[in-house]
Structures are given as C-alpha cells and as structure tokens.
Amino acid sequence: MKITIIYFEPFLSLTQKREEEVTLEEGATINKMASLLARQYGEEFRKFAGHKDTYPATVFFREGETLNLARETILKNGDRIVIAMPVGGG
What we know:
This protein has a 5-stranded mixed β-sheet with strand order 2-1-5-3-4. The protein is built from 3 helices and 5 strands, in the order βαβααβββ. It has a single domain (2-84), classed as Beta-grasp domain (Ubiquitin-like (UB roll)), CATH 3.10.20. The termini are far apart. The protein is α+β, with helices and mostly antiparallel strands and 90 residues long. A hairpin with a 2-residue loop joins β3 (59-62) and β4 (65-67). The protein has helices spanning 11-15, 30-41, 43-49, and strands at 2-7, 19-23, 59-62, 65-67, 80-84. The radius of gyration is 12 Å and the shape is globular. 27% of the residues lie in helices and 26% in strands.
C-alpha cells in the first residue's frame, strides 16, 4: 500500500522534503512506518519519531485524528500522515 507523509519542522529539515510517498505492506502500523523512516533518515529522526518511546511532543495526524505510536494504529492505502512538533509561545 502507499501512504503520503507530510513533514513539518524539525522533520522537514531532517528529511529535506515537504512530503513523500512510501510503500508499506498491507496492515502496516504507524509504528512500523516510523521505524522505516528512522532507518532511512538516521538517529536524529529516530530520536524524535522513530519508535513508541519517541520524544513526547511529536505528533502524528491522519485526517485530523491524532495517532499514538504505542497503540499500533493500522494504516490504510492512501492515508496522508502528518508528522509535526507543536510549537508553544507566549
């Protein structure tokens, strides 16, 4: 199956891509996708988004739904996944 991943900072800088399409086996989970990307983009990516114990501020969205790496959410063909870190200010 094919999914599209949309990156916001710091992932935009780490990947040098705004978005990309990846191919995963049917029934792959969000955690499997994160592990694949961590292998592709290295330690810094893995630290922020590569496994279920990832940096807690990292968020994954699918069509407005927040996904949790610890829940093993199953992805579907055509999904668009956003990976971002919320920004705070005051």
